[in-house]
Amino acid sequence: MRAAIVKAKGAIPVMGYFDSPVATDGEVIITVSATALSRVSKFRSMGMHYSSEAHFPIVAGIDGVGTLKDGTRVYFALPTTPHGSLAEQTTVNEKLVIRLPDGVDDLTAAAIANPAMSSWAALVFRAGLMPGQTVLINGATGASGSLAVQIAKGLGAKKIIVTGRNESKLQALEADKAIAFDMIVDNGQNRFEDALIPVIAEGVDVVLDYLWGDSALAIMSALARARTDRTTRFVSIGTSSGQENIYLPSSILRSSTIELVGSGDKSISKADMLSAVKGVFDMAAEGKLKIGIKEYTLENIEEAWNAPLAPRPVVKVH
Description:
Strand content: 15-25%
Helix content: 25-40%
Distance between the termini: 12 Å
Number of helices: 9
Radius of gyration: 20 Å
CATH class of the largest domain: Alpha Beta
């Protein structure tokens, strides 16, 4: 069968032919219709993610949309190695399959699942967001961050603050307040921190952080300086800034009501992740979630792999 094959650790997948999958007990065969590319999918497929368990060669892709033998449209996650989602067929644990609602097409479902799932899971399962609360989203101009704005609003957030490096994109989001920053300029971190103080003076209940690095530290410093009595659940979701490590003085945590937690596939159960996906699809079916998409074919996998993640690259297989 046609497939996007990763032949060695760190290698970009190439179009080729791979043995068709054979399902074992508890598994189902899925005929794949569409697979979106995300940062985690690409890095995990290349064996460069902390959750990678790859023995090459393998078929790339960690999730997608397709049909079961009876024609039922489904979203699926974590195909059984060495098969992935970027192939004509794959095999998946039957517990990692969700039926798609009629109001969501295959390309949208494939594109929205991963970035929206991470936001939904962080808000619901790690932050415990309640209606009427205030949410600050750091890195809101990316696919996940922009969807997080829509999801937070759909879940009842009263006030949404967005921060990031692209002011024009921030202003385009349906948020209550937008603060752009530039960490490269002199005192960029301090300037961002100072700009935050009046905006968060009344308190922030949840921070979703997709960037980490200096901007995350500035937000935590600002929260400590603001000295509100409202508990802030700071949820680290990603490191899109490229900074894996920060210098975090203990005084920031000791002089604030910040609760620092992470959100990812090691901190959220597979059952909760699938529950998040179901919530995302239901919200999308109601027309409350939108995402930009750029379509590719399996034959153009190398071009798709190197494309920006916004608009979301989606590989149409069937």
